[in-house]
Specification:
Elements lengths: L2 E7 L13 E6 L2 E5 L5 H7 L7 E5 L5 H4 L2 H10 L6 E5 L3 H11 L8 E5 L7 E4 L3 E7 L7 E7 L5 E2 L10 H8 L4 E2 L5 E3 L1 H4 E2 L6 E5 L9 H4 L4 E5 L7 H7 L4 H11 L3 E5 L9 H8 L5 E3 L5 E3 L5
Parallel strand pairs: 3-4, 4-5, 5-6, 14-15, 15-16, 16-17
Antiparallel strand pairs: 1-2, 1-18, 2-3, 7-8, 8-9, 9-14, 10-13, 11-12
Helix pairs in contact: 9-10
Length: about 300
């Protein structure tokens, strides 16, 4: 199992031909996790040859249009394609009401069940978990209630060293070893040591999605050591006062957050439409944090390739 991320949009509020509104598509164990759903997200899915039918979970950070205006269109298209699988949506207060009104007045009747859970932006808490991952909220500072999301892969099973296994070992005992447990005999003594018969699986992957937000060091304990941090960089640092006024961040500030949190890699995006050349963003962030990736629409990131 691996995390595989595709960036569907790196733009901010004002439309730009070369940068779509915010949306990230993460695949984990053949299930799709969509983070934000700006206008034309479904078009971007088609453009980059991604299957919208794989989406099982949708996470919306806040109710600014460039982060959720594409959602009703995506739901309508999934419905026209005769989706029957349940869909899980997590988002702020008001989102369910907006979707309900849109479907009411467009006479849209979904063929599939939508499970909606309202998020809270005042505190960090475990939002959901399944067999493969857990998702925790990240309180952010913006002009409306906003929270990011941390998705963490659960501990991977140990790898069995088959050549060392005794021929008479049972399936139940092998399962214990894969779970990282020693196999004990009737007297409680170690019969088969996990350390001898297995090796640990690869380190779990993790991804933090932080947009939109002012510079907010309070998130550092939540995202500490994450493998890939996506942090918005609406402005360059020469406009740090403008960033503060609008509750956004600069590339330099994103680098500071990444460095102080000890993350492995930083991904930047949500660029203001005033910037045509994005090279200064990567240069500015790298002044503080070297392992920075400049986000681009259509960029594909396999977490196995990250340091």
């Amino acid at each position: 199992m691996s995390f595989h991320l595709t960036i569907l949009g790196t733009g901010s509020a004002n439309p730009v031909v070369t940068r779509n509104a915010t949306s990230h598509f993460l695949m984990v164990e053949q299930e799709g996790y969509l983070f934000d759903c700006g206008e034309a997200t479904q078009t971007q899915l088609l453009r980059f040859k991604l299957k919208a039918t794989r989406i099982k979970y949708i996470f919306i950070t806040h109710l600014h249009g460039d982060h959720f205006f594409g959602l009703i269109g995506l739901l309508s298209t999934l419905n026209m394609h005769h989706r029957v699988d349940d869909l899980y949506i997590y988002g702020p207060k008001g989102l369910a009401e907006v979707l309900t009104l849109q479907m009411k007045y467009s006479d849209t009747r979904l063929n599939f069940k939508v499970h909606f859970e309202e998020t809270r932006s005042e505190e960090s808490y475990l939002l959901m978990e399944n067999d493969y991952v857990k998702v925790t909220t990240i309180p952010l500072v913006h002009r409306v209630p906003c929270c990011g999301f941390l998705i963490e892969e659960k501990e991977k099973p140990h790898k069995i060293l088959k050549e060392l296994l005794p021929s008479h070992i049972s399936i139940e005992q092998i399962k214990c070893l894969k779970d990282g447990q020693d196999v004990l005999d009737d007297n409680g003594e170690v019969l088969y040591s996990c350390d001898y018969y297995t090796i640990k699986g690869p380190a779990p992957d993790s991804y933090a999605f932080c947009t939109d937000t002012a510079y907010h060091p309070a998130i550092l304990p939540i995202i500490k050591g994450v493998k890939l941090l996506y942090h918005e960089t609406t402005f360059l640092h020469e406009l740090v006062e403008r960033a503060k006024e609008t509750c956004h961040s600069t590339a330099y500030q994103a680098g500071q957050i990444a460095k102080e949190a000890g993350v492995k890699n930083l991904l930047i995006g949500h660029f203001s439409s005033r910037y045509k050349d994005l090279t200064p963003f990567i240069d500015e962030a790298k002044q503080v944090f070297h392992n920075t990736i400049l986000g681009e629409d259509g960029m594909s990131i396999d977490f196995r390739d990250l340091v």
